[in-house]
């Protein structure tokens, strides 16, 4: 029965991982897709602006 105890954790983890992937795939798109995309675009724009501002403040740090 040692083989059962050796194989059980990977099988359980694989089942949870498959469930996670299925959940992620099913949640893509839908009515909130445009809001999610807009939120990501805004966050990326803020990060880019902060990076540009840091570069112009100290041009020798590159």
Characterise the protein shown here.
The protein is elongated, with a radius of gyration of 22 Å. The protein has helices at residues 2-27, 33-57. The model has no long low-confidence stretch (mean pLDDT 87). It folds into two domains: 1-30; 31-62. By secondary structure, the protein is mainly alpha-helical. Keywords: Membrane, Transmembrane, Transmembrane helix. The chain crosses the membrane at residues 6-25. Residues 40-56 have a biased composition (Low complexity). This is Membrane protein.
In short, what is this structure?
With 62 residues, this protein is mainly α.
Q: State Rg.
A: 22 Å
Largest sheet, described in full?
Answer: none
The figure for the number of domains is 2
Assess the beta-strand content as a share of residues.
under 5%
Class by SSE composition: mainly alpha
Average pLDDT score: 87
Task: Please tally the β strands and state the result.
Answer: 0
Give the count of helical stretches.
Answer: 2
Helical residues, percent: over 70%
Low-confidence stretches: none
State the main characteristics.
single chain, 62 residues, mainly alpha, 2 domains, 82% helix, elongated, membrane, transmembrane, Membrane protein, transmembrane helix
Secondary structure layout plus pairing:
Elements: H1 2-27, H2 33-57
């Amino acid at each position: 029965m040692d083989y059962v105890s050796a194989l059980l954790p990977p099988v359980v983890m694989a089942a949870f991982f498959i469930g996670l992937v299925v959940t992620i795939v099913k949640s893509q798109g839908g009515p909130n897709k445009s809001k999610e995309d807009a939120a990501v675009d805004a966050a990326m724009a803020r990060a880019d602006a902060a990076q540009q501002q840091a570069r112009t403040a100290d041009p020798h740090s590159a």
